[in-house]
Amino acid sequence: MSSLSCAQDLWDSENRFRAYLGGFWPEVNSTIAIYGDDLMPIPPIDVEDVLGVPSSKGAAWGGINWKISKRNALEFEYFNLNRNGGISDTFSPPLEVGDGFIESGEINTFYDTSVLRLTYGFSILSSKRMDLQLKAGIHLAKLEAGLQVLGGICTPNTVPSAPPGCPSLQSDTQSEDVTAPLPHLGASFSYAFSETWGVRLTAIGFAIEFDSIEGSILELDADVTWKPWKRVA
Fold first, then answer.
1. What is the residue extent of each domain of the chain?
2. pLDDT value at position 230?
3. Residue range 63-94, pLDDT digits in tens
């Protein structure tokens, strides 16, 4: 079964488009800080431990791969992760959000992430059995986060304007969103053991630092593929 004649043909001119759908269950650790105009910035709030947003949730993921030629390919991917949580408590010390202090009450939180990813791949080594690609592309990431609060809130317009003793039954909504294009680079290696079995290793990463925004992502994937039929894997 190890001969080339029995291996998958990784370049199949009759099957150049692939559509795929799946899911994943990430374990997320995140923080949020929404700054106002009057108060000094303070350390971010832990979204999972303090605000009651679940750290793990299933999310859909899918995409389309177009093998343009033996050495050129385009891949479009999409995933969306929306998380919501709520908590009722007395907060000590009070939480600072925007231009207000939350001393007690109910907080409902949403934290949503959507990513579109377009990647070009060029095969520097390609045969029936193996394919080694260099990759470059762009993420379009949309992040939305917000809080809806009902309870004891101090603001510059209340008396007192700072804890303790914030007026009860005040309400406030604070939210922020950002959409940013983020470039990425990477590589992948595919190997077919037989007509039905193969593996693929992928590494993609990027780093950004702009004004007060900075971050990085390193994605490492190891996939086992099973192809029981010509058009289904």
1. 4-226
2. 80
3. 999 989 889 999 999 989 899 998 988 988 88
Contact 181, 138 (CB under 8 A): yes
CATH topology of domain 4-226: Lipocalin (2.40.128)
Q: Which of 12-16, 49-53, 189-193, 219-223 has the lowest mean pLDDT?
A: 12-16
Structure tokens that stand for 2 in this block? 């190890």
CA 228 to chain centre: 31
* HEC letters along the chain: CCCHHHCCCCCCCCCCEEEEEEEECCECCCEECCECCCCCCCCCEECCCCCCCCCECCEEEEEEEEECCCCEEEEEEEEEEEEEEEEEEEEEEEEEEECEEEEEEEEEEEEEEEEEEEEEEEEEEECCCEEEEEEEEEEEEEEEEEEEEEEEEECCCCCCCCCCCCCCCEEEEEEEEEEEEEEEEEEEEEEECCCCEEEEEEEEEEEEEECCEEEEEEEEEEEEEECCECCEC
45-67 pLDDT per residue, tens: 888 988 889 988 888 889 999 98
